[in-house]
Design brief:
Helices cover 40% and strands 21% of the residues. The two termini are 16 Å apart. It is an alpha+beta fold.
Length: 176
């Protein structure tokens, strides 16, 4: 299965990407609460989120994340048996909003459980796959492309209408 990974680290084609388990140390207090809620309510067969690698299903979602945080965008391959969970990232945003607006732990727990529920999603889901590892097929976008991409996004107001998105689609469809 081919998915997308945004990562600050550089990897060669064919390299295996493993989780970088220290991402939580860079989180603000509210985001850390969200992670704690998710980890407290996760199914027992799924490792802690910090021990998972996060992959995007859609190129547009990967580029949106790249727009916010930079890094490299990779096309990666993962064995379907290595997928722990497919979750709608919009539910994470919903949970973060709840953490900001209420102190009701029961509400947080219910929202955290929604992320882990199979078959549920928001109106326009943004799927992330939690996996053990993946293999790099192609480096699609480099950090040096961030500024021109951001400038182009400000003009188009759409990830899918940016030059980088259109060029990257061509690159994905070209032979290795």
């Amino acid at each position: 299965m081919y998915l997308y990974r945004v990562d600050k680290r550089y990897f060669e084609v064919g390299a295996e990407i493993q989780p970088q388990t220290n991402f939580e140390q860079y989180m603000d207090e509210e985001s850390m609460k969200v992670e704690n809620i998710l980890n407290a309510n996760r199914p027992v067969q799924i490792p802690l989120r910090k021990d998972c690698l996060f992959l995007f299903f859609e190129l547009s979602a990967a580029l949106n994340f790249f727009r916010k945080y930079g890094g490299y965008v990779y096309e990666v391959e993962v064995d379907c048996h290595d997928i722990y969970h497919r979750g709608d990232m919009n539910k994470l945003d919903n949970l973060l909003d709840l953490v900001r607006f209420t102190d009701e732990v029961e509400i947080w727990t219910a929202a955290g459980n929604e992320y882990w529920k199979g078959g549920t999603h928001t109106f326009m889901p943004c799927y992330e796959y939690l996996v053990r590892s993946c293999i790099v097929r192609k480096c699609l976008v480099e950090p040096s492309e961030l500024k021109s991409f951001t400038d182009n996004f400000e003009i188009t107001k759409s990830i899918e209408r940016t030059d980088l998105y259109l060029h990257t689609l061509e690159n994905i469809n070209s032979p290795l």
